[in-house]
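ADP-heptose:LPS heptosyltransferase, Acidocella aromatica. C-alpha coordinates?
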Amino acid sequence: MKKILFITSSRIGDAVISCGILERLRLDNPQARFTIACGAVAEGVFTRFPALDRLIVFEKRPYSSHWLWLWRQVVGQMWDLVVDVRSSGVSLFLAARRRKIIKGGRRPGRRYRQLGAALGFDPAPLPVAWTAPADDAKAAALLGEGPVIALAPTANWDGKIWPPERFVAVFNALAAQMPGARAAIFGGPGVDEARRAAPVLAALPGAIDLVGKLSLPEAAACLRRSKIFIGNDSGLMHLAAAAGTPTLGLFGRSKASEYAPAGPRTAIAVAPGPEGEAPMAGLQVADVLQAAQNLLCA
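C-alpha coordinates:
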Protein backbone atom coordinates (compact mmCIF):
# COMPACT_ATOMS: atom_id res chain seq x y z
CA MET A 1 0.00 0.00 0.00
CA LYS A 2 1.37 3.39 -0.97
CA LYS A 3 2.01 5.98 1.72
CA ILE A 4 1.68 9.63 0.70
CA LEU A 5 2.48 12.63 2.90
CA PHE A 6 0.74 15.90 2.02
CA ILE A 7 1.92 19.05 3.83
CA THR A 8 -0.48 21.94 3.34
CA SER A 9 -1.64 25.29 4.65
CA SER A 10 -2.54 26.68 8.04
CA ARG A 11 -5.22 28.94 6.52
CA ILE A 12 -8.65 27.71 5.43
CA GLY A 13 -8.69 29.34 2.01
CA ASP A 14 -5.25 28.10 0.98
CA ALA A 15 -6.01 24.66 2.40
CA VAL A 16 -9.20 24.43 0.32
CA ILE A 17 -7.33 25.53 -2.79
CA SER A 18 -4.87 22.66 -2.28
CA CYS A 19 -7.70 20.11 -2.19
CA GLY A 20 -7.85 19.93 -5.98
CA ILE A 21 -4.42 18.37 -6.31
CA LEU A 22 -5.01 16.24 -3.23
CA GLU A 23 -8.16 14.73 -4.74
CA ARG A 24 -6.38 14.14 -8.04
CA LEU A 25 -3.57 12.33 -6.21
CA ARG A 26 -6.19 10.17 -4.47
CA LEU A 27 -7.89 9.26 -7.74
CA ASP A 28 -4.57 8.52 -9.43
CA ASN A 29 -3.45 6.34 -6.50
CA PRO A 30 -6.58 4.42 -5.42
CA GLN A 31 -4.68 2.08 -3.10
CA ALA A 32 -2.76 4.84 -1.31
CA ARG A 33 -3.30 6.08 2.20
CA PHE A 34 -2.56 9.70 3.02
CA THR A 35 -1.07 11.49 5.98
CA ILE A 36 -2.03 15.16 5.88
CA ALA A 37 -0.28 17.87 7.88
CA CYS A 38 -2.01 21.23 8.26
CA GLY A 39 -2.62 24.10 10.66
CA ALA A 40 -5.27 23.81 13.35
CA VAL A 41 -7.68 26.30 11.74
CA ALA A 42 -7.71 24.26 8.52
CA GLU A 43 -8.14 20.85 10.18
CA GLY A 44 -11.81 20.54 9.25
CA VAL A 45 -11.04 20.87 5.55
CA PHE A 46 -9.51 17.39 5.60
CA THR A 47 -11.39 15.40 8.26
CA ARG A 48 -13.71 13.82 5.65
CA PHE A 49 -10.98 13.05 3.09
CA PRO A 50 -11.80 9.48 1.93
CA ALA A 51 -8.24 8.11 1.92
CA LEU A 52 -7.11 9.69 5.19
CA ASP A 53 -4.78 7.58 7.31
CA ARG A 54 -3.57 10.27 9.73
CA LEU A 55 -4.21 13.98 10.19
CA ILE A 56 -1.37 15.89 11.84
CA VAL A 57 -2.31 19.31 13.16
CA PHE A 58 0.39 21.77 14.09
CA GLU A 59 0.65 25.38 15.20
CA LYS A 60 3.28 27.96 14.36
CA ARG A 61 6.02 28.02 16.99
CA PRO A 62 8.89 30.41 17.76
CA TYR A 63 11.96 30.16 15.52
CA SER A 64 10.02 27.96 13.07
CA SER A 65 10.41 25.06 15.49
CA HIS A 66 7.03 23.70 14.36
CA TRP A 67 8.80 22.28 11.29
CA LEU A 68 11.18 20.32 13.50
CA TRP A 69 8.18 19.08 15.49
CA LEU A 70 6.46 17.99 12.27
CA TRP A 71 9.60 16.23 11.04
CA ARG A 72 9.67 14.19 14.23
CA GLN A 73 6.08 13.05 13.58
CA VAL A 74 6.82 11.71 10.10
CA VAL A 75 10.50 10.75 9.99
CA GLY A 76 10.04 7.08 10.91
CA GLN A 77 8.34 6.13 7.63
CA MET A 78 9.41 5.41 4.06
CA TRP A 79 7.11 7.59 1.98
CA ASP A 80 6.21 6.71 -1.58
CA LEU A 81 5.49 10.38 -2.24
CA VAL A 82 5.80 13.59 -0.26
CA VAL A 83 4.04 16.72 -1.52
CA ASP A 84 4.94 19.91 0.35
CA VAL A 85 2.63 22.79 -0.59
CA ARG A 86 4.23 24.95 2.11
CA SER A 87 7.75 24.78 0.63
CA SER A 88 8.95 23.95 4.13
CA GLY A 89 11.85 21.73 3.15
CA VAL A 90 10.76 19.04 5.63
CA SER A 91 10.64 16.47 2.87
CA LEU A 92 14.35 16.95 2.13
CA PHE A 93 15.08 15.19 5.41
CA LEU A 94 12.65 12.31 5.01
CA ALA A 95 13.03 8.90 3.40
CA ALA A 96 10.93 9.27 0.25
CA ARG A 97 10.87 7.60 -3.15
CA ARG A 98 9.50 10.79 -4.69
CA ARG A 99 9.08 14.30 -3.36
CA LYS A 100 7.61 17.51 -4.69
CA ILE A 101 8.27 20.78 -2.91
CA ILE A 102 5.96 23.41 -4.37
CA LYS A 103 7.10 27.01 -4.31
CA GLY A 104 5.21 29.00 -1.68
CA GLY A 105 4.58 32.70 -1.22
CA ARG A 106 2.54 35.19 -3.20
CA ARG A 107 3.12 35.47 -6.93
CA PRO A 108 0.98 36.42 -9.93
CA GLY A 109 -1.57 33.93 -11.22
CA ARG A 110 -4.24 31.67 -9.83
CA ARG A 111 -2.92 29.59 -6.95
CA TYR A 112 -4.85 26.44 -7.83
CA ARG A 113 -3.32 26.53 -11.32
CA GLN A 114 0.16 26.96 -9.88
CA LEU A 115 -0.36 23.88 -7.71
CA GLY A 116 -1.69 21.85 -10.62
CA ALA A 117 1.16 22.85 -12.90
CA ALA A 118 3.74 21.98 -10.23
CA LEU A 119 2.47 18.39 -10.24
CA GLY A 120 2.06 18.21 -14.01
CA PHE A 121 -1.75 18.26 -14.02
CA ASP A 122 -3.19 19.90 -17.14
CA PRO A 123 -5.76 21.26 -16.75
CA ALA A 124 -5.28 22.04 -13.09
CA PRO A 125 -7.91 20.25 -10.96
CA LEU A 126 -10.48 22.44 -9.27
CA PRO A 127 -10.71 22.36 -5.46
CA VAL A 128 -13.24 19.99 -3.90
CA ALA A 129 -14.96 19.74 -0.51
CA TRP A 130 -15.58 16.42 1.22
CA THR A 131 -18.56 15.77 3.49
CA ALA A 132 -20.06 12.79 5.31
CA PRO A 133 -23.72 11.67 5.44
CA ALA A 134 -24.04 13.16 8.94
CA ASP A 135 -22.96 16.57 7.61
CA ASP A 136 -25.49 16.37 4.78
CA ALA A 137 -28.26 15.35 7.18
CA LYS A 138 -27.49 18.28 9.48
CA ALA A 139 -27.50 20.67 6.52
CA ALA A 140 -30.91 19.39 5.42
CA ALA A 141 -32.30 19.87 8.93
CA LEU A 142 -30.88 23.38 9.29
CA LEU A 143 -31.84 24.72 5.87
CA GLY A 144 -35.11 22.89 5.27
CA GLU A 145 -36.95 23.27 1.99
CA GLY A 146 -36.93 26.17 -0.42
CA PRO A 147 -34.16 28.29 -1.90
CA VAL A 148 -31.42 29.55 0.40
CA ILE A 149 -29.18 32.50 -0.37
CA ALA A 150 -25.89 32.11 1.50
CA LEU A 151 -24.26 35.33 2.67
CA ALA A 152 -20.79 35.56 4.20
CA PRO A 153 -20.33 39.15 5.40
CA THR A 154 -17.13 38.46 7.37
CA ALA A 155 -13.42 38.16 6.53
CA ASN A 156 -10.13 37.99 8.36
CA TRP A 157 -9.74 41.77 8.37
CA ASP A 158 -12.07 44.72 8.00
CA GLY A 159 -10.51 46.05 4.79
CA LYS A 160 -11.86 43.05 2.85
CA ILE A 161 -15.44 43.48 4.09
CA TRP A 162 -18.23 44.89 1.94
CA PRO A 163 -20.61 47.16 3.89
CA PRO A 164 -23.20 45.00 5.68
CA GLU A 165 -26.20 47.04 4.57
CA ARG A 166 -25.30 46.24 0.96
CA PHE A 167 -25.45 42.50 1.64
CA VAL A 168 -28.95 43.12 2.96
CA ALA A 169 -29.92 45.13 -0.12
CA VAL A 170 -28.69 42.43 -2.50
CA PHE A 171 -30.50 39.70 -0.58
CA ASN A 172 -33.78 41.65 -0.61
CA ALA A 173 -33.50 42.25 -4.35
CA LEU A 174 -32.78 38.59 -5.10
CA ALA A 175 -35.45 37.35 -2.70
CA ALA A 176 -38.04 39.48 -4.49
CA GLN A 177 -37.29 37.45 -7.62
CA MET A 178 -37.06 34.09 -5.81
CA PRO A 179 -40.29 33.14 -4.01
CA GLY A 180 -39.71 31.64 -0.58
CA ALA A 181 -36.02 32.50 -0.49
CA ARG A 182 -34.34 32.75 2.91
CA ALA A 183 -30.94 34.03 3.89
CA ALA A 184 -28.35 31.88 5.65
CA ILE A 185 -25.59 33.89 7.29
CA PHE A 186 -22.20 32.14 7.47
CA GLY A 187 -19.19 33.08 9.56
CA GLY A 188 -16.44 31.49 11.57
CA PRO A 189 -16.08 31.13 15.34
CA GLY A 190 -15.01 33.92 17.66
CA VAL A 191 -16.10 37.37 18.74
CA ASP A 192 -14.70 39.16 15.68
CA GLU A 193 -16.70 37.01 13.27
CA ALA A 194 -19.85 37.49 15.36
CA ARG A 195 -19.30 41.25 15.44
CA ARG A 196 -18.87 41.47 11.69
CA ALA A 197 -21.96 39.37 10.96
CA ALA A 198 -24.21 41.05 13.56
CA PRO A 199 -25.46 43.97 11.40
CA VAL A 200 -26.64 41.63 8.66
CA LEU A 201 -28.36 39.30 11.11
CA ALA A 202 -30.06 42.27 12.78
CA ALA A 203 -31.38 43.54 9.46
CA LEU A 204 -32.62 40.10 8.38
CA PRO A 205 -34.44 38.69 11.44
CA GLY A 206 -35.71 35.70 9.48
CA ALA A 207 -32.22 34.62 8.46
CA ILE A 208 -30.68 31.29 9.46
CA ASP A 209 -27.84 32.15 11.80
CA LEU A 210 -24.91 29.80 11.13
CA VAL A 211 -22.13 32.07 12.40
CA GLY A 212 -19.68 30.05 14.46
CA LYS A 213 -22.08 27.12 14.71
CA LEU A 214 -20.73 24.68 12.14
CA SER A 215 -17.70 22.52 11.56
CA LEU A 216 -16.10 23.04 8.15
CA PRO A 217 -17.62 19.83 6.70
CA GLU A 218 -21.05 20.92 7.99
CA ALA A 219 -20.53 24.36 6.46
CA ALA A 220 -19.61 22.73 3.14
CA ALA A 221 -22.77 20.62 3.25
CA CYS A 222 -24.92 23.69 3.97
CA LEU A 223 -23.24 25.66 1.22
CA ARG A 224 -23.82 22.82 -1.24
CA ARG A 225 -27.57 23.05 -0.56
CA SER A 226 -27.63 26.83 -1.13
CA LYS A 227 -28.91 28.40 -4.33
CA ILE A 228 -26.05 30.92 -4.43
CA PHE A 229 -23.22 32.14 -2.20
CA ILE A 230 -22.30 35.84 -1.98
CA GLY A 231 -19.37 36.74 0.22
CA ASN A 232 -16.13 38.57 0.80
CA ASP A 233 -12.80 37.01 -0.12
CA SER A 234 -12.45 34.45 2.68
CA GLY A 235 -12.03 30.79 3.46
CA LEU A 236 -15.81 30.40 3.29
CA MET A 237 -15.82 31.77 -0.26
CA HIS A 238 -13.28 29.14 -1.32
CA LEU A 239 -15.20 26.43 0.51
CA ALA A 240 -18.44 27.39 -1.24
CA ALA A 241 -16.79 27.21 -4.66
CA ALA A 242 -15.19 23.86 -3.82
CA ALA A 243 -18.59 22.52 -2.69
CA GLY A 244 -19.98 23.32 -6.14
CA THR A 245 -22.23 26.17 -5.03
CA PRO A 246 -22.66 29.05 -7.51
CA THR A 247 -20.20 31.39 -5.81
CA LEU A 248 -19.86 35.15 -6.15
CA GLY A 249 -16.71 36.52 -4.52
CA LEU A 250 -16.40 40.22 -3.65
CA PHE A 251 -12.98 41.81 -4.05
CA GLY A 252 -11.31 45.12 -3.40
CA ARG A 253 -8.43 44.90 -0.95
CA SER A 254 -7.30 41.51 -2.25
CA LYS A 255 -6.34 40.31 -5.72
CA ALA A 256 -8.97 38.43 -7.68
CA SER A 257 -6.32 37.54 -10.26
CA GLU A 258 -4.76 35.30 -7.60
CA TYR A 259 -7.60 34.32 -5.28
CA ALA A 260 -10.86 34.43 -7.21
CA PRO A 261 -13.07 31.47 -6.25
CA ALA A 262 -12.28 28.30 -8.19
CA GLY A 263 -15.19 25.97 -8.83
CA PRO A 264 -17.62 24.78 -11.49
CA ARG A 265 -19.80 27.93 -11.23
CA THR A 266 -18.09 31.08 -9.99
CA ALA A 267 -18.01 34.81 -10.60
CA ILE A 268 -16.45 37.90 -9.07
CA ALA A 269 -17.46 41.50 -8.44
CA VAL A 270 -14.51 43.84 -8.03
CA ALA A 271 -14.39 47.33 -6.55
CA PRO A 272 -13.05 49.97 -8.97
CA GLY A 273 -9.45 51.00 -8.47
CA PRO A 274 -5.96 49.47 -8.40
CA GLU A 275 -6.14 45.72 -7.92
CA GLY A 276 -5.70 44.77 -4.29
CA GLU A 277 -5.95 48.37 -3.12
CA ALA A 278 -9.50 49.40 -4.03
CA PRO A 279 -11.80 50.28 -1.08
CA MET A 280 -14.70 47.87 -0.77
CA ALA A 281 -17.07 50.81 -0.37
CA GLY A 282 -16.58 51.50 -4.08
CA LEU A 283 -18.33 48.25 -5.00
CA GLN A 284 -21.95 49.12 -5.67
CA VAL A 285 -25.08 47.11 -4.95
CA ALA A 286 -26.16 47.25 -8.59
CA ASP A 287 -22.90 45.67 -9.74
CA VAL A 288 -23.09 42.81 -7.22
CA LEU A 289 -26.76 42.21 -7.96
CA GLN A 290 -26.09 42.03 -11.72
CA ALA A 291 -23.20 39.60 -11.17
CA ALA A 292 -25.40 37.43 -8.94
CA GLN A 293 -28.22 37.37 -11.48
CA ASN A 294 -25.82 36.48 -14.28
CA LEU A 295 -24.39 33.65 -12.19
CA LEU A 296 -27.82 32.26 -11.39
CA CYS A 297 -28.68 32.27 -15.10
CA ALA A 298 -25.40 30.70 -16.22
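The mean pLDDT is 96.
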